[in-house]
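Morning F.,

Quick status update on the modeling queue. The single chain you submitted on Monday has been processed. Sequence for confirmation:
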Amino acid sequence: MRNFEQIKALVGEEVTKEDLQCVDCYVLEKFGLFIPSLGACGYASRPQHSHPSYMFTLIFGVEENPSPIPIKENQYLGMVMSPGVPHNDLESIHYYCILIEKEYFEQQYKLYEEEIPNFSYQYFGICHDILHALNTFVFEYSKNMKNANITLEAQANIITHWLIRSIIGETYDMRAVSTNYSVARAQQYMEVHFQEKITVENLAKLGNLSVSGFNRTFKREIGETPMEYLIALRIEQAKKLLRRKEVPITEIALRCGFNSSAHFSASFRKYYKVTPTQYRKKYI
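Structure tokens below.
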């Protein structure tokens, strides 16, 4: 606890050092990462406590999904809480807690959305790579190298935007970005043209590969075929539109590159175990 005043500014004025004796704390002026390592957090155990900052809890190691939203295998479950909202923390769960200063977070959020909603137990999916980013932050913080404040603030800014994008559904799995240029170029093309008719032949031509060679390379690099990747991408785009009640599901299917609403519904159910209609109801 290098600066307990910074901790109090993020956690709350009532927090004590005894509350955090089992918690690893990595804190900057506007950003803090708290990891229960030896036991429970005393402050988090208080019923109906709150924070002056935005709280993000990244939950993993649970057998059952406690949220109403479906989570894919390559995602963690995240939860966001607005400042001043009383809450009880989830018990017996391994988690990382991120607290972000109110004014700073709202400045960054407004780069994406005009209004900031009141978050109260709002769940969202976030890809596994967030853990790598957070552990990199911990490593840099612990080493306390020269000019570490510069790199730590940059990392905190990236993590903040990663969280915001996850809340509004604009994130992706960084592990899926290939280091192979031919595959990465095909991925980039699909990201831009997912609404259009795309064939493996056209994707292979982008990297000057044969169809068979491209299929083997893509599967080896990404772990799925090009068409499986494309369908998953289309479904992720469709999820954003499903959150808007005014867009009919048939229109969503066509706008996201599916031949029919039946094809869209079957593909969506395969990935998330619920229909598009059920997902929309749960999200709302």
